[in-house]
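Exercise 7. Given the encoded structure of a 601-residue chain, write a plausible sequence.
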């Protein structure tokens, strides 16, 4: 069975005669299939119509209409009797239909507005039903910041009052017109296409207004993105019923009466809307530039001179009422929050500087006091600075000790070599000599991030070092030892001291390893009669130091016959945790951003 759908050609047809083709029951519901109908069957995001089928001896009050492979089924409560073959009158509930039509056409208007603003947007679905959140779904991403522009374009389309064309076409005509099908549609049937103004037609089976100008105001409320899809939400406002009519019929003499009527009906609407709209929507509908109040203000211009005053007062009174209604949103919000004055206040959280940054500031201060300058050099540097300039020519095996990250690049500088993430702060030594044009005295402290291919409980790929360099005439190991002792006292406490042990580095000669006395047992190695469990020996090894190798001075353009220098360098993380008596099971905690840990420092 196939039912002819009359609303396809004319969405304004409210009633027709028809013949009953089938009658059935589903529980207490009666189902009727007709040869033709004016009622819209649910689909395409538009809800079903309601209405009545009236026979000679019976009446079906239709509450739902569904589409069953060509046959349209009217479902509802039957009073009396209806029979197959009987001629009946079919009438659609026009109020319901007209609202649905408004919402359906609105979807197409918003969609066209979006196509103007974001041409690549492809609509894939939509919900235009009453009581639901109206939206159109796009399989593309639309920028939420376009909302205002889409709103403007939507309003402009309504204001332009464009005709909405409906046309029945065959599949062949559709192909000829090159109309893209968003989804597969039956091949052998006539299809309906719709277009707004001269926009590209699209297949559509819903009911449509005659023109965009007939549309109620549309408010685009939100653009929500989810899983690569975009949902553009909108609402509609049924305008004050007689506004348009009044406008046409208005005679100058009656104008103040109309202002009164208009103000009254706006007020009545607002009293209702304040219960259902959000504060934003209320503001947009009534108080915004294109809202109902400003519409009324426009009307004032047409009022005769004598009546201007009272009309103006009426308009002002409406303004106050609307503003007062808007304020109720705030007070409602306030009233709904019960404030218990006896609850203790919430102390605002005050953050603090990260422990490693604290240590860096402190170290800088300690060295600045004795005439050092903190410098900063690149953390991504030519390998010449951390290696070649430090007496480690290319392919020198000592380089392997610093598990260095190389920057991937085809370019290799003929002298400076490749780019690396600096594996130690010693790259700053020759850079500082160059900065000072190879002219001592040099007293630098270089603090920076360093990077090595290492990650376990005692190492992180990124860590911090500080590097000292002093070059001048007559600099000896005593200066080195004195400087390190000064640091030990300032950083670890007045009893702290240092010790140096012979070692080997390429860039110093002689070279030392530096130990600091343990701050937990004051360097005694004993705690309460037992071995100090923190250091076991009274000392902690922290880093390296030595007298600057002549080749390094030469690399920096300084004459090693005239000048000597010392250098030292070690990790900030270790220096800091030793002072706090911290044995971190996992050094990575420092960079975890775990507030429970960080708040302790
Ligand atoms: N740069 C070395 C490292 O990272 C530490 C070091 C040792 C720095 C001796 C120095 C030094 O300045 O003289 O292992």
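Solution.
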């Amino acid at each position: 069975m196939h039912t002819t759908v009359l609303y396809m050609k004319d969405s304004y047809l409210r009633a027709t005669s028809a013949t009953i083709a089938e009658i059935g029951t589903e529980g207490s519901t009666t189902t009727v299939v007709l040869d033709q109908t004016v009622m819209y069957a649910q689909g395409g995001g538009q809800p079903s119509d309601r209405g009545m089928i009236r026979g000679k001896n019976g009446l079906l009050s239709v509450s739902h209409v569904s589409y069953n492979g060509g046959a349209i089924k009217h479902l509802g409560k039957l009073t009396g009797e209806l029979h197959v073959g009987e001629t009946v009158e079919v009438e659609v509930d026009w109020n319901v239909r007209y609202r649905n039509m408004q919402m359906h056409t609105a979807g197409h208007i918003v969609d066209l507005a979006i196509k103007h603003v974001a041409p690549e947007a492809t609509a894939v679905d939509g919900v235009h039903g009453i009581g639901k959140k109206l939206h159109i779904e796009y399989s593309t991403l639309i920028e939420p910041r376009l909302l205002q522009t889409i709103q403007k374009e939507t309003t402009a389309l309504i204001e332009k009052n464009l005709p909405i064309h409906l046309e029945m076409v065959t599949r062949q005509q559709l192909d000829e017109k090159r109309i893209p099908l968003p989804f597969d549609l039956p091949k052998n049937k006539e299809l309906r296409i719709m277009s707004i103004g001269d926009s590209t037609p699209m297949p559509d089976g819903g009911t449509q207004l005659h023109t965009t100008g007939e549309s109620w105001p549309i408010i685009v409320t939100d653009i929500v993105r989810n899983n690569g899809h975009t949902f553009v939400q909108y609402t509609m406002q049924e305008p004050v019923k007689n506004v348009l009519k009044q406008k046409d019929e208005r005679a100058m003499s009656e104008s103040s009466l109309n202002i009164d009527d208009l103000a009254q009906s706006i007020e009545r609407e607002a009293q209702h809307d304040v219960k259902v709209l959000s504060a934003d929507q209320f503001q947009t509908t009534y108080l915004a530039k294109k809202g109902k109040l400003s519409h009324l203000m426009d009307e004032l211009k047409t009022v005769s001179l004598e009546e201007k005053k009272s009309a103006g007062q009426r308009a002002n009174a409406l303004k106050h009422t609307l503003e007062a209604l808007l304020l109720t949103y705030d007070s409602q919000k306030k009233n709904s929050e019960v404030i218990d004055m006896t609850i203790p206040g919430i102390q605002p959280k005050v953050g603090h500087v990260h422990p490693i940054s604290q240590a860096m500031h402190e170290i800088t201060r300690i060295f600045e006091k004795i005439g050092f300058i903190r410098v900063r050099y690149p953390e991504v540097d030519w390998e010449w600075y951390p290696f070649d300039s430090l007496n480690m020519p290319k392919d020198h095996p000592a380089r392997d000790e610093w598990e260095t990250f190389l920057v991937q690049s085809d370019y290799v500088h003929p002298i400076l070599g490749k780019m690396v993430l600096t594996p130690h702060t010693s790259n700053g030594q020759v850079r500082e000599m160059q900065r000072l044009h190879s002219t001592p005295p040099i007293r630098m402290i270089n603090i920076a991030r360093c990077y090595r291919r290492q990650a376990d409980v005692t190492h992180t790929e990124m860590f911090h070092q500080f590097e000292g360099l002093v070059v001048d005439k007559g600099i000896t190991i005593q200066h080195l030892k004195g400087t390190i002792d000064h640091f030990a006292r300032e950083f670890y406490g007045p009893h702290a001291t240092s010790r140096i042990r012979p070692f080997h580095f390429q860039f110093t000669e002689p070279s030392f390893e530096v130990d600091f006395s343990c701050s937990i047992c004051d360097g005694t190695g004993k705690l309460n009669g037992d071995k100090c469990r923190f250091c076991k020996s009274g000392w902690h090894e922290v880093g390296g130091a030595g007298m600057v190798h002549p080749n390094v001075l030469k690399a920096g353009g300084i004459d090693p016959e005239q000048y000597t220098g010392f250098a030292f360098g070690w990790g900030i993380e270790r220096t800091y945790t030793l002072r706090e008596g911290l044995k971190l099971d996992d050094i990575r905690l420092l960079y975890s951003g775990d507030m429970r840990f960080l708040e302790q420092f």
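Remark. Residues 424, 426, 467, 505, 508, 543-546, 567-569 surround 3,4-dihydroxyphenylalanine (CB under 6 Å). Students should compare their own answers with the one above.
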